[in-house]
Amino acid sequence: MSVIGKSTNIFWQECQVGKVDREKLLKQKGCVVWITGLSGSGKSTLACTLSRELHSKGNLTYVLDGDNLRHGLNKDLGFSAKDRTENIRRVGEVAKLFADSGLVCIASLISPYRKDRDFCRAIVPDSRFIEVFMNMPLELCEARDTKGLYKLARAGKIKGFTGIDDPYEPPLNCEIEIKQENGICPSPLSMAGHIVDYLEEKGLLQE
Ligand SMILES: Nc1ncnc2c1ncn2[C@@H]1O[C@H](COP(=O)(O)OP(=O)(O)O)[C@@H](O)[C@H]1O
Ligand SMILES: [Mg+2]
């Protein structure tokens, strides 16, 4: 019997079917690919391309996209530092469960604060947390401005926008960093290929 946070008198329920059984069934290892970067850096594009590439190789994936999750699970949260932290904590916990289910869970969220990403890394067992940093210059993201949000942030119509008047803390020790090469952004397919190679090297795409 124990106390966890605000939960009292709770017990852990074991089940006969475990993670290893599910991984055998799926012929892959559960893990989390966590894509972080500024708005407009290409996180969602990469997440979807990676999901498609892995799917066509016969690997089961699920994408947890920041914007999509704010339509449901996280719709009660805003963009204050406290709410951003809670947003990431919840997605980290969900990603941990998805990895435990045997899936390659691809999370694409700005996740601006280092300590929040480090929390997510810490709760995923066996170093199965692969942090991918979309290291694109603010000028590129702002020039893209697909959703028109940078324009609104510059005009002061959105407060607390990451990269404008809210901080982005780049990873210090990420597994994969994606940058422009000679001023050119690699194609989504080449970025996804790089991640697939990494997962393959680590033996995560087989049982
Ligand atoms: N590798 C890329 N090369 C060129 N344009 C890209 C690339 N990745 C994304 N884009 C474009 O940049 C914009 C923002 O991408 P998106 O994936 O929505 O970013 P984020 O999810 O990080 O906010 C979109 O218009 C997308 O088509
Ligand atoms: Mg996105």
From TrEMBL:
The keyword Nucleotide-binding applies. It catalyses: adenosine 5'-phosphosulfate + ATP = 3'-phosphoadenylyl sulfate + ADP + H(+). It is an enzyme of class 2 (transferase). Pathway: Sulfur metabolism; hydrogen sulfide biosynthesis; sulfite from sulfate: step 2/3. GO terms for biological process: cysteine biosynthetic process; sulfate assimilation. GO terms for cellular component: cytoplasm. Pfam families: APS_kinase. Keywords: Amino-acid biosynthesis, ATP-binding, Cysteine biosynthesis, Kinase, Nucleotide-binding, Transferase. InterPro entries: APS, APS_kinase_dom. Its EC number is 2.7.1.25. Residues 29-179 form the APS kinase domain. GO terms for molecular function: adenylylsulfate kinase activity; ATP binding. Catalyzes the synthesis of activated sulfate. Belongs to the APS kinase family. This is Adenylyl-sulfate kinase. It comes from Zingiber officinale (Ginger). The lineage of its organism: Eukaryota, Viridiplantae, Streptophyta, Embryophyta, Tracheophyta.
